[in-house]
Amino acid sequence: MGKHQEMARPAMTRIAEIIAQYQDQKWPLIPLLQEIQEEFGYIPPEAINPIARALQLFHSEVQGVITFYEQLYTTPRGKKVVRVCRGTACHVRGGKTILKLVKQQLGLEEGETSTDLEYTLETVACIGVCALAPNIVVGKNTHGTMNPKKIAQLFANRKGGG
Ligand code: FES
Description:
This protein is α+β, with helices and mostly antiparallel strands. Helices cover 42% and strands 11% of the residues. FE2/S2 (inorganic) cluster binds at residues 85, 87-90, 126-130, 133, 135.
């Protein structure tokens, strides 16, 4: 993502509303962070201070929890997360080339999200369907026995996208 932009006022109001729902609960931090992420697709950095204040925590404590949980993100994510397998089985069957092609097709490097927030590109250790290597996952769907043609078809609308 490019430069960080400040959140619009309605977003901050919505964050305050969500915080209010959790303020009096016993262990509110994780469910509160999860709900904020569900609403925005990530945890906006601007949400951390109001959360810390409401729950009487330090900013660093809230930040620490977000960093600890891999499922919590502090940068916007694409609607579809593309995960290219870099496990051994996929690697020996050309996984590296598959990753290169996906990068080209999406115009993204690992860990990046397209500016239109459609795609995020990641790699994973093993998807668990090694017999079909090389594999990639797009959103909730796994695509096996990938090859350059299939990659081109899958992301036909994104040539060099970004
Ligand atoms: S190594 Fe890729 S699915 Fe197992």
